[in-house]
């Protein structure tokens, strides 16, 4: 539960609040190499947590590992 917004490049691919598992999911095409990724998350007061997953043509859905992210 909480509020979330996810952008890849200039495209917002996910936004909503409340029960985040109910937000419709969208796909985004990533280019090879670095991609701009922005995630804003505000947990609900009950201490909720968030995990972000990805999948590709050659791998099943899995959590994005921190080592895959740079700033």
Which secondary structure elements does this structure contain, and how are they paired or packed?
Layout: E1 2-8, E2 11-18, E3 37-43, E4 53-56, E5 59-63
Antiparallel strand pairs: 1-2, 1-3, 4-5
Give a short synopsis of this structure.
The chain is built from no helices and five strands. The chain has 71 residues and is mainly beta.
Structure description:
The chain is an all-beta fold and 71 residues long. It has strands at residues 2-8, 11-18, 37-43, 53-56, 59-63. Helices cover 0% and strands 44% of the residues. It has a 3-stranded antiparallel sheet with strand order 2-1-3, with no helix packed on it. Strands 4-5 form a two-stranded antiparallel sheet. Strand 1 and strand 2 form a beta hairpin.
Strand order of the largest sheet: 2-1-3
How is the biggest beta sheet arranged?
3 strands, antiparallel
Average predicted confidence as pLDDT: 88
Oligomer: single chain
Give the overall shape, derived from the CA principal axes. globular
Question: What class do helices, strands and sheet pairing give?
Answer: mainly beta
**Run of helices and strands:** EEEEE
Low-confidence stretches: none
As a whole number of angstroms, the C-alpha radius of gyration is 13 Å
Separation of the first and last Cα atoms: 26 Å
Q: How much helicity do the residues have?
A: under 10%
Beta strand %: 35-45%
- Count of DSSP helices? 0
Q: Could you give the count of β-strands?
A: 5
Based on the model shown, name its key terms.
mainly beta, two-stranded antiparallel sheet, 71 residues, 0% helix
């Amino acid at each position: 539960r909480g509020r979330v917004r996810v952008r890849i490049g200039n495209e917002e691919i996910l936004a909503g609040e409340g029960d985040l598992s109910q937000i419709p999911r969208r796909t985004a095409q990533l280019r090879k190499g670095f991609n701009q990724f922005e995630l804003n998350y505000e947990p609900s007061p009950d201490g909720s947590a968030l995990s972000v997953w990805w999948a590709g043509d050659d791998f099943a859905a899995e959590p994005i590992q921190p080592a895959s992210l740079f700033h």
